[in-house]
Amino acid sequence: MVSVELREILKILGDFRLEIKSLKAKEGEFLTLLGPSGCGKTTTLRIIAGFEKPDRGEVLFDGRVMNEIPPYGRNIGMVFQDYALFPHMSVFKNIAFGLELRKLPRGEIEKRVLRILKLVGLEGLENRYPEQLSGGQQQRVALARALVIEPEVLLLDEPLSNLDAKIRERLRGEIKRIQKELSITTIYVTHDQEEAMAISDRIAVMKDGTIEQVGKPLEIYYNPKTEFVARFLGLSNILELEAENGKVHLGKLCFNVGRDGKVKIFFRPESVYITEGDFAEIVGHELLPGRIRLRLSIEGNEIIAERFLEELPFKIEDMPKSVGVLIKSYTIL
Ligand SMILES: Nc1ncnc2c1ncn2[C@@H]1O[C@H](COP(=O)(O)OP(=O)(O)OP(=O)(O)O)[C@@H](O)[C@H]1O
Ligand SMILES: [Mg+2]
């Protein structure tokens, strides 16, 4: 297992500037680059793979500088967003390609291809051509092709983005299972925050060519360092209020913020508990499967709460005009 590290990377492409001071995927780790379109995810992956040379800085595998080593010398497996399968080659040939380049003996190639086909659940399809496969199957061929060379590093660029929601969910579970089984250091790119949460050991959130925050999924979700990260990872409540004596009061709520003046208090809708009481006015609601999302107004500040139905102190049919609210965890941005 190897670690992958970027140090003081700078890459300028037209008027886009990618600047990564430091980023490290540990041995066997599943690290995800998450961010909106155009933030530099693919560029970062291409620098790690060696398809793009940084203007400054270093790419290190296990502490060894790789800058001068071409992609084929880096022992990486890469899956591109559009799969890039060879249309005129069978599934077997597509997967065997990298092994043939490496001049492995015929018998060894066959053994490895059949083993990897089993791993990705494509046994029996080795003679088909890409056009005879579904999107999900093509994606597995691309994954098999990247894995068959037994890479030390796996780079996946939005590998599930062309698939429908059901297949996407199933395949992301399989990618994770295979990655853990082979313990390959993996860098995964997506702009889908749910996918990132589900699959990653750690997530690096990117914005405009820089990394905003790196952390474990729940750390980033509940303790974002910036408003951008907070908003990118799902529904959020951000209250801009005035603190006095280290505290902010709102209705019957009291936040200990440890400073005075303007503060931004952040919490997720599921951190808002509904109690009996009347200082939060219900201004709207939306039913979700088994849950309810409430829009509440407290002294003119709107917040969102999300609860399972059985947690409410009232029946949906007898929804009161106002309720009490308890916020169990929050953080200051
Ligand atoms: N060869 C190039 N010349 C000029 N600009 C480029 C080049 N390649 C990429 N860019 C620009 O760099 C920025 C980052 O591109 P990149 O492909 O890394 O983004 P991304 O995060 O992968 O986006 P997406 O989610 O849409 O795939 C974009 O603004 C893009 O237009
Ligand atoms: Mg991209």
Descriptive overview:
The protein contains eight helices and 19 strands. With 333 residues, the protein is α+β, with helices and mostly antiparallel strands. The protein has two domains: 4-232, P-loop containing nucleotide triphosphate hydrolases (Rossmann fold, 3-Layer(aba) Sandwich); 237-332, no CATH class. It has a six-stranded mixed beta sheet, with helices on both faces. The chain has a four-stranded antiparallel beta sheet with strand order 2-1-4-5. Helix 2 (91-101) crosses helix 3 (106-119) and helix 2 runs parallel beside helix 4. The structure holds adenosine-5'-triphosphate and magnesium ion. Adenosine-5'-triphosphate binds next to helix 1. Belongs to the ABC transporter superfamily. Sulfate/tungstate importer (TC 3.A.1.6) family.
